[in-house]
Amino acid sequence: MTVLGEARTDTRRRRKAERPQEILEAAFVEFSRNGYAVTTLDQIAERAGVTKGTIYVYFENKEHLFISMVREFTKAATEIVHGMFEAHEGSTADLLRAQFSFIYDHIVSDRRRRDVVRMLIAEAPRFPALADRYHEEILRPCLDMLRQAIQRGIDRGEIRKSAIVDSPQVVIAPIALVDLWMMMFDDRQPLDLKAYFNAHLDMVLNGLLAK
Description:
211 residues, mainly alpha, Arc Repressor Mutant, subunit A, Tetracycline Repressor, domain 2, elongated
């Protein structure tokens, strides 16, 4: 094979490797613009510059594509938060402080993630299977990580036993409020996210830590 032929082969391989990401980016644009129900795979394919058949090479159907898109946006941040738990050797209070700080800096402030939440809220009543899949594949693992952190503190005598272990949603509920607030009031009643974060963390630590 000539040098030119090798270069063309490398380019094709690189383009093929990049194709799933390009499809996911196109899906985000179309889902954000039109909503889940209205968006078609034909529209996504056209935006991505591929055929509809190419989408099926990587994704089973529209639901799989949507969940894969959400997973792609959250994967890196989730892995970092989990890595903090695995590597942390200090107090549980410091672990939670570090995790929540990262969440606010890199997740809460992510407008694309908030657009996905908006789509899910709008579409969940009509597509409960989509909401269920989001819960099982994305939300529940996050709750499990939080539950692990709380249990770590209990095992070390740093966190008191309470009903929160079985309902960790209570701990992250203020983050859901941030999403709703920004969707409805951000241009008229903007939040001071730094002050809000400090208040949230103060509530969490004072509610969890053993006295």
